[in-house]
């Protein structure tokens, strides 16, 4: 009887000790979130400047690429100027060809046979021109159309340069929480053995 009493007392003491330890742990776990947050889980925010997107767009409108420099996206500046330079090159080339054929056409209408198409590459005058009058009309229409397209493309690139600077400035001010992530996933369907590919959105509390 005495041994049973001693064993019961020891077991009761151990049970009380374990219960006390669990209560202390539970109290620690229920501390306010802002107290137990460590430096890795804190969300670092930066001040938002509402005028930043407007400034970036204005700078790019004044000088293409300047808005990208304002956003510190320096690698985009060569792309902006390469695109604008390409559009400008095609405009100049098409404009030159348009005036070339137009001058020859105006000379034909005046009754002259002295335009460049009445001569071969060696400079010898030909009886029959290398390009007919109808061909000169078609060439004018072709190069005029290409010239107008080149202008529209160049203006479009200029507008995209402004839009890109504005959007980039907006995105730079977004607060991206490291606890939020999107990742691709691949899963085998156990019923029909087909593979399913998709995206998984994870948020860690």
SSE blueprint and pairings:
Elements: H1 2-29, H2 33-36, H3 52-62, H4 66-70, H5 76-109, H6 133-172, E1 180-188, E2 195-203
Antiparallel strand pairs: 1-2
Helix pairs in contact: 3-6, 5-6
Write down the overall mean pLDDT.
76
Q: What is the assembly state of the chains in this entry? A: single chain
The span between the termini is: 54 Å
**Tally of DSSP β-strands:** 2
Q: Which structural class do you get from the secondary structure elements?
A: mainly alpha
Fraction of residues in β-strands: 5-15%
Q: Summarize the main sheet.
A: 2 strands, antiparallel
Instruction: Work out the radius of gyration.
Output: 38 Å
Shape: elongated
Helix content: 55-70%
Question: How would you characterize this protein structure?
Answer:
Helix 3 (52-62) packs antiparallel against helix 6 (133-172) and helix 5 (76-109) runs antiparallel to helix 6. Strands 1-2 form a two-stranded antiparallel ribbon. The protein is built from six helices and two strands, in the order H-H-H-H-H-H-E-E. The protein has helices at residues 2-29, 33-36, 52-62, 66-70, 76-109, 133-172, and strands at 180-188, 195-203. With 205 residues, the chain is mostly helical. Helix content is 60%, strand content 9%. The two termini are 54 Å apart.
